[in-house]
Amino acid sequence: MLSVIWLGCWSVASVADADEALRGRTIGVTCAGCHGTDGVGSDMIPTLKGKDAASLEALLTEYKAGERTGSVMPRIAKGYSAADIKAVAAYFASLQD
Fold it and tell me: Any idea which architecture 20-94 has in CATH?
């Protein structure tokens, strides 16, 4: 019985993660101009593809709060809600080679 409950919870979590990544993909379209459509940056622009979601979320939150400067990211991140940041971080983390 416990394994059935656990399996059900895992399935719901997987669907929620997939939905969040899909929402993040929609938001992430705005990132493509600099970070590429596949999340791969360049010499001057970091790659987001496959990075840890928690790290990406923390970075975007720091940009939003003005704790990180030196790029256009603070202006961009200010336009995102906390849910947007979480979703876009989940999307780029979901991209794999």
Answer: Orthogonal Bundle (1.10)
Cβ contact 56:92 at 8 Å: yes
The two structure tokens encoding residue 83: 């849910």
Residues constituting the chain: 97
Would you place residue 81 in the very low, low, confident or very high pLDDT band (cuts 50, 70, 90)? very high
Q: What ranges do the domains of the chain cover?
A: 20-94
What does the angle CA 39 – CA 15 – CA 24 come to, to the nearest 5 degrees?
30
Q: pLDDT at position 10, please?
A: 40
Look up tokens 């997939």; give the residue: 18
Residue 70 per-residue DSSP state: S
- Distance, CA of 39 to CA of 4 (rounded, Å): 37
